[in-house]
Amino acid sequence: MTTSHYIAGRWVDGQGSDCISVNDPALGQPFAELMAASAEQVDQAVAAARAALPAWKCTSASERAAYLRGFAEQLGQRREALVTLQMRNNGKPRHEAEVDLDDAIATFGYYAELAEQLPGQNRDVPLAAPGFTARTRLEPVGVVGLIVPWNFPLVTSAWKLAPALAAGCTVVLKPSEVTPLCELAYGQIADTLGLPAGVLNIVNGKAETGAALSNHNGLDKLSFTGSNNVGSQVMRSAAAQCRPVTLELGGKSAILVFDDCDVDAAVQWIVAGICWNAGQMCSATSRLLVQDGIADALLPRLQAALENLRVGSPLSEEADMGPLTSQAQWLKVAGYFATAREEGLQCLVGGKVLDRGGWFVSPTLYADVPEGSRLWNEEIFGPVLCARRFASEQQAIAEANDSRFGLVATVCTTDLARAERVADALEVGHVWINSVQAVFVETSWGGTKGSGIGRELGPWGLSGYQSVKHVTRCLG
């Protein structure tokens, strides 16, 4: 596969110096390769988006909504191919890959509805001073660069692409070099729908391509999802250009289990929070805070549940959890296992890589992890859970908030008044109560502290791609 870039409505071969190998993580072997885009091709993509902007931002709301619904329908028509590709390139079990696709479809449908409401958002503003009138006008921010990660391809790109197009922006999308293939479906769909050339551009590549895009002076905004290290570089680029940026970064999130909670339900929520996508989630609830009164009953059941998870290739087995997506991530998680041994942590289950030919690791639980441990404080991005006990509600809140991150949290208790009280006290962007991590397009997504800047999804996701203009007129 060499025709891997969609620029100005045309498929073009990569002209960069990097060859990208696309791997099957269950085998640890490549199954496709493509050439990266050159810096000149990034220039061409930005120029194409700039040229397409004047006409696209003047399209009617109903026309943009029709395109967005077309994306949703076309994703559905490609369902089996995209689900299989997610399984093969990401290592996601089928049920996870299907949830991802449904999420992307729902996102385009939701922003189609919001797009149709845009004319009603241009409204008069009442003024206290006589002799003047004023109105507010919402306009697209312009040309935006979208850089998305490898753990949720299709999904993260939909969260950015759909609201950007709904707002009237034109875009340059840069997928991860680890999972570049799924996002190419968006270019195929644009062709099928007859989306005007230049409205959507896709450039693939490694860090050099991402840097060429994030540093480009032709962008009006950049939206990035990924690691904190790269996010800080993106933010420096935005600062140099004095342009807005949305950053969705890392997390080290807590799940708080109080002693009145149903043990079996709590185990289900805990396992889902750390083993979905093999723990490769910024929202993974990798810190378990369990109250003293329930800990002795919960930890053995949790250990058994993790031991009984079926770990294997999504394409050949009935897998509850697949491999890690890349060799680099596999080596990183293996390094944390070594750190845990050096720190003398108590491992109840797992703590090792699996000798299966691919990039598999075992679901892992460490008990009574000290607060100074690297594993308690650092984002691992794997199915590695660290547990600590607490005595009181105040202690649980304090330990959950004692983090440089602030993305999500989960609260497990039958006392709903306490659940709401704790949720309000947690310094995070999203809290679940007695639930798996159900994410709905109508709600917001994003965090506090080191977990990023801005919000995606819901009306907040749309407003991130809009600029507010006020028009004031003197009546004299």
Automatic annotation (TrEMBL):
<dbReference type="Pfam" id="PF00171">
    <property type="entry name" value="Aldedh"/>
</dbReference>
<dbReference type="GO" id="GO:0016620">
    <property type="term" value="F:oxidoreductase activity, acting on the aldehyde or oxo group of donors, NAD or NADP as acceptor"/>
</dbReference>
<dbReference type="InterPro" id="IPR016162">
    <property type="entry name" value="Ald_DH_N"/>
</dbReference>
<comment type="similarity">
    <text>Belongs to the aldehyde dehydrogenase family.</text>
</comment>
<feature type="active site">
    <location>
        <position position="248"/>
    </location>
</feature>
<keyword id="KW-0560">Oxidoreductase</keyword>
<dbReference type="InterPro" id="IPR029510">
    <property type="entry name" value="Ald_DH_CS_GLU"/>
</dbReference>
<feature type="domain" description="Aldehyde dehydrogenase">
    <location>
        <begin position="11"/>
        <end position="471"/>
    </location>
</feature>
<dbReference type="InterPro" id="IPR015590">
    <property type="entry name" value="Aldehyde_DH_dom"/>
</dbReference>
<dbReference type="InterPro" id="IPR016161">
    <property type="entry name" value="Ald_DH/histidinol_DH"/>
</dbReference>
<protein>
    <submittedName>
        <fullName>Aldehyde dehydrogenase family protein</fullName>
    </submittedName>
</protein>
<dbReference type="InterPro" id="IPR016163">
    <property type="entry name" value="Ald_DH_C"/>
</dbReference>
